[in-house]
Amino acid sequence: MVADAAKKDKPEEKKGKNAKDEKKDEMSDEDKKLEEDLNMLVKRLGEPDTSLYKPSLESMRTLIRASTTSMTSVPKPLKFMRPHYTTMKHIHEKIADPAIQKECANLISVLAMTSDEPIDCIIYRLKGTQEPVGDWGHEYVRHLAMELSEEWKKTADGTEAHKKTREQLLILARDIVVHHMKHNAEVEACDLLIEIERLDLLISFVDEADHQRVCLYLLSCAPLTPDPDNIILIRTAKDLHLKFNKYLEAVRCAIMLNDTDEIKRIFKLTTDSLLQMQMAILLGRHQIFLDFEGAENGEKLGALNANTSLFEYFHSLGRELDIMEPKTPEGIYKSHLEASRPFGSTSAPDSARMNLAAAFVNGFVNCGFGVDKMMAEQEDANRWFYKNKEYGMFSAAASQGLVWRWDIDSGLAQCDRFLYVNDDFIKAGTLLAIGIISSGIQDPCDPASAILLDHVHSDRSVMRVGSVFGLGLAYANSKRETVIKKEEGGVIHELRKVITDTRTPSPITAEVRGLAALSLGLILVGTADHDVANEMVTSLMEKSEIELADPNMRFYALGVALIFLGTQEKAEVTVELVKCIAEPFGSMFATLVDVCAYAGTGNVLKIQGLLHLCSEHYETKEDKKSKHKDDPKSISKTKSSEVSVSTTSSASVSATSTPTTTPAKRSKKEATKAEKTGGKVDLSSQQAVAVLGIGLIAMGDEVGSQMALRMFGHLIRYGEAVIRRAVPLAMALLSVSNPQLNILETLSKFSHDADPSTAHSSIFALGLVGAGTNNARLVAMLRQLASFHHKDQMSLMLVRLSQGLTHLAKGTMTLNPWHSDRQMLCPSALAGILTVCYAFLDANNSIMNNKQHYLLYSLVLAMQPRMLTTLVEDEKKQLKQVNVTVRVGQAVDVVAQAGRPKTITGFQTHKTPVLLAYGERAELASEEYLSMTPYLEGLVILKKNPNYEAPLVSKPKA
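^ thats the sequence. predicted structure below, dont judge the formating
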């Protein structure tokens, strides 16, 4: 049988060979003649008669250039010349005439595209006549660019020979960039200059028609590039915008760089008053407040930058949508629609928790509208406050700050009536409400510091809590001199005094110290202020292990981490410094600072390091006891294995951890203590922060977010309990105010989890994901959860909070920290969301301990209207609202696309003001007005188009 099969196969082999020969024979007469001509020309070059060299090379050049080819095949002349490649190199060496030798080098450089030699193409190009780089076609230019970047890396050592080579390569790089720019290949030009780290050359080659595409590409590459290269990309984009007088786009780049001095410089360069106003609005949205005293139109610019009129435009939106009527918590819960429970408990729910939830929900739902039904009258408000106890009253009083959000004049008048009551908790809550009202607003009178600073050093702890946390919210991300000055009387100076108080016994509680540290972090967010950070770290180093175990100490760590939010490499010194603090606090602290430093960057290496941390297993003595409680046989095994575990624990941690997350070396005393407790130090808190960090870093990149979601799926199934509890919060960070179906389904599943902490995290995460969207599917899910958790009052309270967040400002606000077409990350907004998620990592000791639920008000920093309101300047040079037609649709990624592609799809036409959902983009529907900003979000200033001609309206026939 085998022999027969072999016999059958032989004819087939012959047939195959014959097919190849036949294919070769099938060459056309034209191809055969071309091959013969090329062979003859190569033969002539090998002959001793030098007079034949030049005409032979010219003929060969003509034949190669005359060939036509498709994108999928090698040109025929190059295919026929490929066997002669080595011969041509030998011929080049033998030619004595320099001019003819250069001609030959040109041809070899082109032939090198088909060879296996790595950089022959560029070597012989440099030996050639330096003819225009595009003469041999785009494929040849692409090969040169690819080999140029490789050769550039090899010449990095700086020797004299390599310096000369680099000079030649730089000349070639300029030629390639010029060619790309002429042929609409700006992306390839940018890629080449990024590879050789000479983006500064780009500015001289870009013209006005192409600069928008180039800048868009550079800014889209920045999140995918490591520090400091990403800074170079953004700075190059800024310089390009300035070259063509695109000042608003340049300011956006300066904001991304967090460079306040550059922002001021660009402001002075701008002469158009309307453009200056639009810049002021953009800076106010990002909560960067500048001093416009002495500037032309300084009063107008200051008002727009300070967001003092934001509540008026928001109320106008509410009237347009007819949603000014206040809503009650019960109107949101719709308890009558919840599934009936015939076999459930008929007892009334715990009124304290439900009243507390109602206070938050009332604030969330009526946020910014200035009207509600619970605190409209003094008597109603008092009755409402006294339904709660102590810190419940504190949070209920603070909720009035949400209702009067941004409206300082009316809000302070309403709060003033509660500053003189006899109950300290109501007074303290009112102080926090003043901080909430003032958040993101720069009032010339600065009422927040005037009122709150008086109570920072109060004898009553609760008054300190309200004033200290209120100051943090009121001045978050504030770059104002009056706030950041560290001399006597400044807000930061007073908060630092709270932290550094060394009196014994100290009248300042750990809770107040933790909040002071957190407030400093919020005020100095993203500034990398090493002085304040080192002061806070030093105070932590002086504390004992027992003091560090206090849950409030975790907010010290968060405060320092927020100072370095998004600063990347600037945080490295502090990361190393905090590792000296006793374990497990030190490792958790170092990881927290590290993840905050790279927040929103999408840094893949950091995420890999964090995933590695999550793969570690830290088994404490309590875990072992519970594991072997019912198994007496395993006790002896455990005792024998404890010795081996203890001897290998420190080695395994140091060997498997990345440099950025390696725990600090412990003293001999700590190591002995770890051995006695049965092995490794419990670093589970570090793992929880690492999980949160994955979401925090990946949120800046859509592809990274999708990959992180897949990782979370594995972590929540196979990870330790502390990891499973953190995963829902990390998922919420990836998709704040963007209820994607797959995330909703996952969180809904784990909101029924047997572990209460995992269920609690998942329920609250649902609220963050759906915040301000009125998502119908999510509303139905939460209603079902309310029925499921009707016996568990803690879970039911969280369900109510999530319902309130979903209906945030009746569906007109968002918590998403990204703005300006999802390209800019607001540091204070991210800090507010991170604070709440971080608190939920140990919710039983913070938000759900009947005391620190006021930390939920950190979300105020992220609350922004998701509206588009258009403004024009009237005859009196005042901005007034105007209704224009706009198209609103799903945003389309147009980065590196040729021509003028459509930026939105599936659009609908509306009249402003309109609401913009996540991922939506707007554009003007007519050419009657010109926009001062290419990104139609928030408040947009328009001006009349001088070239606009109204369409002729035909008169109806009689």
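Residues 5-17, 342-350, 624-679 have pLDDT under 50 and may be disordered.
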